[in-house]
Specification:
There is one protein chain. This protein has a single domain, classed as NAD(P)-binding Rossmann-like Domain (Rossmann fold), CATH 3.40.50. It has helices spanning 4-10, 23-32, 46-54, 74-88, 111-136, 160-179, 198-201, 213-225, 235-245, 249-257, 262-267; strands spanning 14-18, 38-42, 64-66, 93-96, 143-147, 186-192, 195-196, 211-212, 230-233. The protein contains 11 helices and 9 strands. Helix content is 49%, strand content 14%. Helix 6 (160-179) links the parallel strand 5 and strand 6. The protein is α/β, with parallel strands linked by helices. The strands form 2 sheets. The chain has a 7-stranded parallel sheet, sandwiched between helices. The structure holds NADP nicotinamide-adenine-dinucleotide phosphate (NAP). NADP nicotinamide-adenine-dinucleotide phosphate is lined by residues 19-25, 43-45, 48, 70-72, 97-101, 120, 124, 147, 149, 192, 194-195, 197-200. NADP nicotinamide-adenine-dinucleotide phosphate (NAP) is lined by residues 19-25, 43-45, 48, 70-72, 97-101, 120, 124, 147, 149, 192, 194-195, 197-200.
């Protein structure tokens, strides 16, 4: 449940949510659809985006516009923003959430997997920022939000590509936070722990402190409303990883090695 204060923050705002056809993005759109705001939602699948709208509050469905496309294409990002500008004349909040997760097989180290992860997670976000910054600068309440992960805190086995893209995003937002200040654009980076979505459904390992996508949307919207610089959750998981990351490197590597199943260790 969103508090009145959180709901008020989003009222009358024009918001772009990427990766809105499933998981966290869809949960964000469903939660925002109970508030009087204008939503633009993007991902590749137009059909799945329509399905997101089907699950939204009836009263606000008319305020949701589908702008589908592959966000790894720079031109698509520009076209989407042009549509938003033509229809609404402004953009207040860009929530750049689209992403995917592919795991590295250390016995088949494949650069094309890295290329795909960099394109989908990092470059698509850079294109989204490039397209939206000029229009965000015109808003008096602009917010730029980027989806990273708690995987950005530590080097985790198999997440060499995914984690690297998420660390790049977290680092980019640490810099943007400062460079966007003179332009009155507030920015937040999101670092969730495990969230129950299509992305994590593929995982074949234990996922401690996993939360639902609905709960993650609550944390995220509350954090955006508070202009938090880093929105991380759930605390019991994110703070533990932050603590581990602050330890001396040999200790970090030893603790991380404990998470590798014995069978994988044997194959090395
Ligand atoms: N679930 C977790 O535990 C977790 C934890 C930390 C961070 N995250 C991050 O949260 C974000 C959302 O993940 P999720 O768990 O909600 O996963 P999900 O259910 O698989 O959703 C991913 C979304 O990204 C979209 N997408 C993927 N590639 C795209 C592309 N090239 N162009 C446009 N849209 C694209 C997908 O839509 P289409 O397939 O229709 O394009 C989908 O809407 C990701 O950035 C993920 O890394 C997730």
């Amino acid at each position: 449940m969103l508090s009145n204060k959180t709901q008020k923050h989003f009222e009358n705002k024009v918001i772009w949510v990427t990766g809105a056809s499933s998981g966290i993005g869809r949960a964000l759109v469903i939660a925002l659809s109970s508030i009087d705001c204008q939503l633009y939602i993007s991902s590749r699948s137009e059909e799945k985006l329509q399905h997101t709208i089907d699950q939204c509050q009836e009263s606000n469905k008319k305020n949701i516009v589908v702008l589908a496309g592959d966000l790894t294409d720079k031109k698509i990002n520009q076209t989407i923003i042009k549509h938003i500008e033509n229809i609404s004349g402004k953009l207040d909040i860009a929530i750049l959430n689209a992403g995917s997760c592919e795991y590295v097989d250390i016995n088949n180290f494949d650069s094309s997997l890295f290329e795909r992860q960099v394109k989908t997670n990092f470059l698509s976000m850079v294109y989204g920022i490039e397209a939206s910054l000029p229009i965000l600068k015109k808003s008096t309440e602009a917010q730029l939000i980027g989806m990273s992960s708690t995987a950005a805190y530590l080097g985790l086995p198999r997440a060499e590509a995914y984690g690297a893209t998420k660390a790049a995003i977290r680092n980019m937002f640490a810099a943007l936070r400062v460079s966007l200040q003179p332009h009155q654009i507030s920015s937040s980076v999101i670092c969730p722990g495990f969230v129950e979505t299509e992305l994590t459904a593929k995982n074949d390992f234990d996922m401690p402190a996993m939360i639902t996508a609905v709960k993650s949307a609550e944390y995220i919207l509350k954090g955006i409303a508070k202009h938090k610089q880093e929105i991380h959750f759930p605390n019991r998981f994110s703070l533990t990883l932050k603590l581990i990351a602050s330890l001396p490197n040999p200790l970090v590597s030893w603790l991380v090695s404990l998470t590798i199943p014995k069978s994988s260790k044997a194959r090395r």
